[in-house]
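Incident log, structure service

09:12 report received: a user says their structure output differs between two submissions of the same chain.
09:20 pulled the input from the user's history:
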Amino acid sequence: MKIVTIEEMKKVERRDYNLRRLSEDDLILSVAMSLEDKIISLDKHNILILCGNNRNGDYGLLASVLLKRDTQLNVTAVSLNTDSKYYQAAESEGVPILNVQRIIKQNTEQADIIVDCICDYDDCTLEYPFNYWVEWINDSHKYVISCDVPSGMNSDNGSIAKNCVRATETLAVQLPKLGCYLYPGSEATGKLTVDQVGLSYEATEFVNTIATSNSYGEIQKKLPLRRKHSHKSTYGKVLLIAGSPGKSGAAILCGKALLKCGAGLLTIMSHEKVIESVNNTLFEAMTITMKDGHTRGAMDQLNLNDFSMLVIGPGLGRSNDTEYILETALKSELPCVIDADGLFFLKNHLDLLKSRKALTVITPHLGEYQRIFDYKQDSIVNDLINISKEYDNLAIVLKGEHTLIAYQGKITVNTTGNNALAKGGSGDVLCGVIGALLAQRCDIDSVVAGVYIHSYGADKWVENNSSYSLMASDLIEMIDKVLFEMTRS
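09:34 re-ran on a clean worker, output below:
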């Protein structure tokens, strides 16, 4: 699904308006009907709808009219926009309309459902008295529905005002707004529901957006095929360089994820103690030992032509040897996945990164990303777009609540995952999943699929288990179940 910025959403609307497919009144009626359906579905009696002096406010006022006509619910509106024809319609219908601040505050405390129609998606300004309304909404701890975006959130970058509505659920109009996926806006958004409200398919397809989200059906199509007539080399020969004394688990977790997700042949190169653990744990992997003090010699003796791709970094440590391994990988012609300690020295070798012809995937969290590239957190999406344009064969997997995947100036927002993943080892597994899919089919679709499947494994876990308890080894087993499900449905 496309995800829109403010300007992109305006282009969609203008196209339908200009072609006279629908009017603004048609759109307001359609959104009001959607709000009505959502409110009725929650089966609560006392409804309070707070309306701004804008189109979002008109959505709320007309929704109050429809609810008054069609239901027995106790509906109250809050509005100061007496010039709006929808204000007059609500007044004519007998909808109580509040404008006294003390009474508005009392009603937020008494309502079962509060509907936030204060700010439009293109205006997050909260002046008096709207800032007080937002404060009262949040203090009420009631079920809050925000129309399109939470009031006080910037629709483009997810930044929030001092007082921003903390919605239980946000009902996005036609297309979700980018800020709803970016922290801290994502926290204010709550559950995000997208409602198709009548804007034409042609208009939404006509407008090119910088961001899209993935979906279950799309990911199924991105999975590499397992052919009947094939052998182990068909599915990639991976060299994993990972682990160091005290961090053998990172190499084992990443290696197990690589094999579980379909890589044909795996060789793990690491320090002697790590290789000892690998040989006792991961019987399917071949190994190469890097003796202490001889890492550079071991790297120089490698024939990288024996492999189809490289995965480096998990648990590798931050020594000069790691930097030499990274530099060797970047100078090679093999596709490469770089994670964890492998990212630490990347800042020193951006020239090699830029000149690479093979696909390079990096998987930083925000702190690692900040170390590698100069960026501004309030415009992270623009930074990702610009950097991925500058580094033509680079795919950036920026890990977070909604992981962002940037490639050649486009962003994919991952829609799976939960806080069960906030535990050591999860990133090592992600690195292995991406590496395995890339080994089988080396393109950006494999990266997008790997991120989705990894996070979806955590979603499957919390269906029957606590989010506190997920371990990285459990996650690998859940990913196996995900792949089983996806390839048979």
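09:41 both user submissions now match this output. Likely a transient worker issue. Closing.
09:42 reviewer note: Residues 24-41 form the longest helix (18 residues). The mean pLDDT is 95.
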